[in-house]
Automatic annotation (TrEMBL):
Keywords from the UniProt entry: Methyltransferase, Transferase
Pfam families found in the cross-reference section: Methyltransf_25
Methyltransferase domain segment(s): 42-136
Gene Ontology terms describing biological process: antibiotic biosynthetic process; methylation
Xref: PANTHER family: TRANS-ACONITATE 2-METHYLTRANSFERASE, TRANS-ACONITATE 2-METHYLTRANSFERASE-RELATED
A GO MF label: methyltransferase activity
Recorded superkingdom: Bacteria
Name of the protein in its database record: Trans-aconitate 2-methyltransferase
InterPro entries attached to this UniProt entry: Methyltransf_25, SAM-dependent_MTases_sf
Record's keyword annotation contains Isomerase: no
Amino acid sequence: MTSVAAMTREWDATTYDSLPLPHAQWGRRTLDRLAPRGDERVLDLGCGTGRDSEALLGLLPHGRVVAVDGSLRMLERLRERLAGRLDRVEVVHADITGPLPVTGTVDAVTSVATFHWLPDHAALFRGVARVLRPGGRLVAECGGRGNIAGVSTAVDEVLGPQPAVWNFAGVQETERRLREAGFTDVEVALAPDPARLEPGSQLLSYLAVVVLGGQLERLPAEEHEAFVRAVAGRLPEPVVDYVRLTISATRGPGGTRT
Ligand SMILES: C[S@@+](CC[C@H](N)C(=O)[O-])C[C@H]1O[C@@H](n2cnc3c(N)ncnc32)[C@H](O)[C@@H]1O
């Protein structure tokens, strides 16, 4: 088993897939923007349980997917989902805050709901540029500036000042980081996309499994339930106030600037 550094953690993959995830829609929109030809090798960064890797396989009848994630439980679920089709999938367990674990180059890179978990986007984009062939595209989305502000306020009220868990970047800094990493045709946008959940157990599970895992791993297990209930109780409505950062960029012809 690969040793994966401290920037990763385990996710409850079964509960994750049982929830009404807006991620499904974000994934469809991201792959619509990617629109591959069908014979490419595409890297899915933070592939999770493989929903978008599976859709990619459908869009790539003559291509391959490199599916990378830092959670073994997420990857176990991906392997179940893609059973019988794994001959066209390279499944990699790795921390993507480090050098991207890709042999050779890929034709495109995609990612859904993952980049905001990574503290250094400049390093991330340089790493993507290193594995992406010149002319290849990065098409991704993640939480951006202002994402889940209401949930964050509730977390701060409950826990007090804490080290940052999320990295919600803005448009201009993301454009600059992409250009500095050697990307051209850079398009970045921010848009609100709130998700309404059922009050009660669905909201509590959603917060615990999808949103608050970073805080929960810092708390003793016996405090988890009370913490999630306290955050949920401070939300004016059972709504997670998402703001999404969408990214499209093309790897320029030159080498990467480091
Ligand atoms: C919200 S989930 C999104 C999963 C999937 N893309 C989706 O849309 O359902 C975020 C994923 O990013 C992965 N992740 C977060 N930080 C990571 C890191 N440093 N290295 C590798 N994977 C990471 C998590 O393990 C998790 O599967």
